[in-house]
Amino acid sequence: MPKRLPPILTAYTAKKLLDGNNEVSLDLGLTTTKIKRTNEGISFPKGECVDYGSLEKIAEKENAAYFVSGENVYQVATSGKHFYKLVPTPGAPTLEIDGIRMHRTKETTPDEDTRRKLDKLRIRRGTVLDTCTGLGYTAIESMRRGASQVVTVELEPSVLLIARMNPWSRGLWEGRGVQMLLGDSFHVVNGLPDRCFDYVVHDPPRHSHAGHLYSGEFYGELWRLMRPGGRLFHYTGEPGSRYRGVDVGRGVASRLRETGFVSVSYHDDVMGFTALKP
Prior knowledge:
By secondary structure, the protein is an alpha+beta fold. The relative contact order is 0.10. The longest helix is centred in the middle third of the chain and has 12 residues, at 110-121. It has helices at 11-18, 52-58, 110-121, 137-144, 157-164, 185-188, 216-225, 248-259, and strands spanning 8-10, 23-24, 33-34, 36-37, 41-43, 49-51, 65-69, 72-75, 77-79, 83-87, 94-97, 100-101, 127-130, 149-154, 178-182, 197-202, 226-235, 242-243, 246-247, 262-267, 272-276.
């Protein structure tokens, strides 16, 4: 993780600068920084600068974030198997893959949604498995709540590249306690020891993109990894959502119970199930 991230600009930031503001956020809302103006544009504290023409272009792009390197401006995005980009929200930014947002942003923000999901698990101490790292908000918030260790798994290196450019993701690399693993959780969990987690947060892509992460076989592996009394949160989306005519939520609840989980309950406010290993 770089010690210092470059200035990050959004349409909102660009508009404020064009309107004459001399103190704005250069880290997506976490802090504010004073800038200097020149005849050509804006000069930032560490020497980077951006011209007014570039600011006008950024101001037109509501669903994108840009970083400044020297005198050049680049979008926080990358292409691999898919197109990945960072998208600002009123809170923490979200990750967008091929135009699909990886966090709930309607009437909430990614950071607030993460907090509400973890509220369901009542994390205090103990170890946490986060099956889908994404931008790292689950892992970071779990550590803030007192987890002794978080093991977090990410499939796509491109996602971690975006996370490295996201100021809200710095906790993944700062300090101790977070162990990141690269690979498909379906296979990665096979190498983890029995009964080593007190909590599991399973927030997979939609069923149509990762059906194997909704399977009874995978739930059996999560059961094996959890200590007795361990708690699971499983995001599924809205109740009654269907994939090829199948009620995803009903199937999830049934397979969790067949695996041995009890107290399987759906929570409308976070669109996911909680379950307990007795």
